[in-house]
Write a structure and sequence with these properties.
By secondary structure, this protein is mainly alpha-helical. The chain is built from ten helices and no strands.
């Protein structure tokens, strides 16, 4: 994933319009507005280093409780600035700039909040999936030891019983936007494994060779390259969604810089 340090560019884009001469009243009104924005955004400027450190230091796989606190702090600071900017009254010439500033702040706050959400969510996801590996190990051990049709049936029934609550827990989780495709893919895969295990438990109990072979082929398909490709596509979608949000923030920041320069040109 791209580093989140691309965020929080607002303060660096703001400066008073200079120059003198005609259109002084309009220029002064815009200058006053931008000075007001600078004043309320000072909280972000002063915290820029710590904010950037919190965002750059985020790791989806190694997040810690302190990361959540820092990211929630970033979200709160940006939101507080957004509330103050929203309370300002821009002159007509700065209304487009004002609207874009608010959109930028909202995007930045949402990005920081979703990173915090991810930092909170990943450990929960790891705990939810924890029973899957030992369940697979137990299935292999039981199948190896099984000497009868009923032994095979019991092994798959035990595997089904281990996976079913995991699938139920996954479906109850509310995943962050960037992680949702991955969680959905994992849920589908484990649900399919539980379904196949249930069918195999019944097939072995009935000594239904045709149904057993069909179920075993289904299991083989889950381990195929197609399944690996589906998981890869889910991971790719997660990265694409995250980077797409940063791209929108960067594009909006560029637009704000152009709008500011347009005001300087027109009123300077």
């Amino acid at each position: 994933m791209r580093r989140a340090g691309a965020l929080l560019v607002l303060a660096a884009l703001l400066a008073g319009c200079g120059g003198s001469g005609h259109k002084a009243a309009r220029r002064d009104a815009v200058n006053t507005y931008i000075q007001q924005v600078d004043a309320v955004a000072a909280a972000l400027v002063g915290e820029r280093t710590s904010i950037d450190r919190a965002l750059r230091g985020f790791s989806m796989t190694k997040s810690k409780p302190g990361d959540v606190r820092r990211l929630r702090g970033v979200e709160a600071k940006i939101h507080a600035v957004s509330v103050k900017v929203r309370g300002l009254h821009p002159p007509p010439e700065a209304r487009t700039l004002h609207a874009d500033l608010l959109r930028l702040l909202d995007l930045e706050a949402t990005a920081a909040g979703d990173l915090a959400w991810t930092a909170e969510f990943v450990p929960t996801l790891v705990r939810t999936l924890r029973p899957v590996t030992p369940a697979g190990t137990a299935l292999g051990r039981e199948l190896k030891a099984a000497k009868t049709w009923q032994g095979d049936s019991d092994a798959y029934a035990h595997y089904r019983d281990a996976l079913t609550p995991v699938v139920a827990d996954l479906r109850r989780l509310e995943a962050p936007p960037e992680l949702k495709p991955t969680v959905d893919a994992q849920t589908r895969q484990l649900s399919r494994r539980a379904e196949l295990s249930d069918g195999l438990a019944a097939a072995f109990a009935k000594k239904d060779v045709k149904a057993v072979n069909a179920g075993l082929r289904g299991f083989a398909a889950l381990s195929s390259q197609d399944e690996a490709d589906r998981n890869y596509r889910a991971q790719l979608a997660m990265t694409k969604a995250y980077n797409g949000r940063l791209d929108r923030i960067t594009a909006l920041a560029v637009r704000i810089a152009r709008e500011r320069q347009k005001l300087v040109t027109e009123l300077g």
